[in-house]
Specification:
CATH class of the largest domain: Alpha Beta
Structural class: alpha/beta
Number of domains: 2
Strand order of the largest sheet: 2-1-3-4-5
Distance between the termini: 31 Å
Number of helices: 8
CATH topology of the largest domain: Rossmann fold
CATH superfamily of the largest domain: Response regulator
Order of helices and strands: EHEHEHEHEHEEEHHHEE
Number of strands: 10
CATH architecture of the largest domain: 3-Layer(aba) Sandwich
Strand content: 15-25%
Largest sheet: 5 strands, parallel
Helix content: 25-40%
Length: 228
């Protein structure tokens, strides 16, 4: 790593938190520890982290709500931790925006490895297809580079494209993408999303005319596929 990335650790169990912090620091990350959920969202707004390790059950606040609040303005990778192992908890965690899920008890080394993988994927160094066009998502500055060039994206375009890129192959409905954009677009509904997608495609094509990475799925929405 050229510069230390900061990982937020949101965990009320001191022993678990201490082990995670030690392992993350040994792996080259800076860490910021939160024993509850009160300051996590505001801290992420002020100094966006590279990733968040988030316990589901906290003495103040809860992981689900914090995850949902972070997703209102950030595409930061989120790894959720919990002692619960029921399928519904996993599904709910992923549905509100978590990128990965680890149940306690867990290996701290595995958590660090998963955090590293999430960060690399967010930065565009991992894609499903090695032939995909390389990209990089800069969560801190809310910008995206394509073929080494920064795209001139609006805030809404960044949020939509980042969401698509973080989940290659996943189909997002227009309503889901409108939620990713913050629901504050000038237009409403399908028209707003279609306009954002049109602008995103145009801006990518200005850098790479051959790119055809944001595809329409008839009757469903859109997905990111790299090059076709």
């Amino acid at each position: 790593m050229t510069a230390a990335r900061t990982v937020f650790v949101v965990e009320d169990d001191r022993k678990i938190a201490g082990v995670l912090v030690d392992y993350l620091r040994n792996a080259g990350y800076e860490t910021r520890l939160f024993p509850d959920g009160r300051l996590v969202v505001s801290a992420a707004r002020e100094n966006p982290p590279a990733a968040v390790v988030l316990d589901l059950t906290l003495p103040v606040g809860d992981g689900m709500s914090i995850c949902a609040a972070l997703r209102e303005f950030s595409a930061v990778p989120i790894l959720m931790l919990t002692a619960r192992v029921e399928l519904n908890d996993k599904v709910t965690g992923l549905a509100v925006g978590a990128d990965d899920y680890v149940a306690k008890p867990f290996s701290a080394a595995e958590v660090v490895a998963r955090v590293g993988a999430l960060i690399r994927r967010a930065e565009g160094r991992l894609t499903r297809d090695p032939a995909s066009v390389p990209f990089m998502i800069d969560v801190d500055r809310q910008r995206i580079a394509w073929q080494g060039k920064w795209l001139e994206l609006s805030t809404f375009e960044f949020r939509i494209l980042a969401a698509l890129m973080k989940h290659p192959g996943r189909v997002f409905s227009r309503d889901q993408l409108l939620d990713e954009a913050g629901g504050a677009a000038q237009e409403s509904g399908d028209r707003a999303v279609d306009t954002h997608i049109k602008n995103i495609r145009r801006k990518i094509a200005a850098v790479d005319p051959a790119a055809d990475c944001v595809t329409s799925v008839y009757g469903s929405g859109y997905r990111f596929e790299g090059t076709s």
